[in-house]
Amino acid sequence: MRKFGSGFSAALISLLMAQPALSQEIADTIYSGGPILTIDDAAPRAEAVAVRDGRILAVGDLTDVMNHQGDGTKLYDLDGNTLLPGFVDSHGHVVFGGLQALSANLLAAPDGTVNDIASLQDALRDWMAKNHDVIQQVNLIIGFGYDNAQLAELRHPTRDDLDAVSKDVPIMIVHQSGHIGVANSKTLELAGITDDSTPPPGGVYQRDGNGRVTGVLEEYAFFQALFPLLGNLGPDGFKEFAKAGAQMWASFGYTTGQDGRSSGEAVEALKAVAATGDLPIDVAAYPDVLEARDYIKAHHSHSYDNGVRVAGCKLTIDGSPQGFTALRDRPYYDPVGDYPPGYKGYSAVTMDQVQDAVNWCFENKIQILTHSNGEGASDMLIGAIGAAQENFGHRDDRPVVVHGQFLREDQVDSFQALGAFFSLFPMHTFYWGDWHRDHTVGPINAENISPTGWLRQRGLPFGSHHDAPVAFPDSMRILSATVTRRTRSGDILGPHQRVDVMTGLKALTIWPAYQHFEEDHKGSIEVGKLADFAILSEDPTAIDPETLADIDIVATIKEDVEIYRAEKGKSETRLYPPLGHHILDMGLNAMQGG
């Protein structure tokens, strides 16, 4: 081997030190200038992140990362703001989320102003006045987000309340849960629903003391009336929904969304929007296993095609806990409404349907997400997964329990033994915690809704979700609820179920990435993973947890491309209704099916 003198070696080392970029890959972008929370336990904080070709090239100290700077490297100054991995949606409905853009806002505070029947009627009238042309073209007035638990009357509106707004144009208003709706008399007429009608299986027509249909429709009775009305929107209308929903998710820091209980039509709309470059985030779709098996089997994929993939199946066993349609294993505590003694709610499907659906997903090696709110529904799901595993083997299928509001502790143990993943809804402690305490389960059992503390005691990961459009996909509201469990009234519901801020952040990032089998390239800031980031106005680990909900999303980055930025000094840009007016303006022709 040829040997060189010490003078040559010294010169070579000097040359390499003077030009470090020659021995390093050159970054497209280097992010620095603010706290960086990696969600990587091995190195939880960093000073800088380098990105190349949409993937993370280096993470660590500023000096080391700057070795990747070249002449064309963009230096992204965080300006004191905090960088985290982009949020991964544990459960939501991206396409249906776009419905809010075309609806009257019937939400209560802090997301709206409806607090009684009169203000609900006023909100509908205001929307009608602003959208007269839309109503003429689609012959429909629709409102979203009313909550009988937040109305002064503590009841659902009725057909008569809606007839006072209009008897001539069909009106349908959607409960915030998405499982109940109210129709005016014109809508009932178009749907063929009379006082003598029999509701479909898994649905209920609420009636007054004289047997008259009140217009309040539950579960499949509601879906059966709503979807024909929305059918007038046509394929282009679904595209507008998909586009609006994806933009909303991005505005709350999400770089991966979910379209739970999707359909073939919704997935095709997502693909069409992606093809035009208007889908800013990835979307994992889970079509309804009772309705779309052929579509699921034909399109199921572990990888994204232009940002869209059919990731698995969705099954819905029961309904809404706050609406008293979830299936419990015991009577509701003090339900508000006309319910028989010992009322426990009901399932929307039979045990045979549950078992058949779970078996089909296991047999075809397709992940299944199951909406199961009440203890009775979870008993059905535990039995079905156990039987399927006996038949097809105990594989890493990661079946997902969606919501699990009213879980017994023994059910947590059973699901753990089955290898299930929990996607919980801690925002219920804020929106409906007081209602659950006073009416659904009572003060003792309400302490254990969304039992994140029980999961962590067992070392289990979990996802925290928003179920939008049930609530806005407000990532910081989710974080706040998961950490503080503070209700609207200020009560702390189940202090033993609270978790720390870092755990709450994992439930928005790395753990839902694991839920979707995407933990190898999403959910944390590590070398080789996608450059998907959320930029926050504050470091959530360094502030009073009671102020977490006040953190703003400054920007959202998808694979090194900024897909959302808040207007300076206008935190209200995080709210969705202003976008709705834009979509209305853009979507008149779309709502006519082209």
Account of the protein in words:
This protein is α/β, with parallel strands linked by helices and 594 residues long. It contains 22 helices and 23 strands. The strands form 5 sheets. The protein has a 6-stranded mixed sheet. A 5-stranded parallel sheet has the order 16-17-18-19-20. Strand 13 (254-262), helix 10 and strand 14 (282-287) form a beta-alpha-beta unit. Helix 9 crosses helix 10 and helix 12 (351-363) packs across helix 13 (375-392). The longest helix has 18 residues, at 234-251.
What is the C-alpha radius of gyration, as a whole number of Å?
Answer: 25 Å
CATH topology (fold) name of the domain at 94-233: Diaminopimelate Epimerase, Chain A, domain 1
| Spatial shape | globular
CATH class of the domain at 94-233: Alpha Beta
Sheet with the most strands, sense and barrel status: 6 strands, mixed
How much of the sequence lies in strands comes to 15-25%
Mean pLDDT: 90
Based on the coordinates given, report the CATH architecture of the domain at 94-233.
Roll
Distance between the termini: 76 Å
**What's the tally of helices?**
22
Give the strand tally.
23
**Could you name the ranges where pLDDT drops below 50 across 5 or more consecutive residues?**
1-22, 570-594
Class inferred from helices and paired strands: alpha/beta
Q: Roughly what percent helix?
A: 25-40%
Main sheet: strand order: 7-8-9-10-12-11
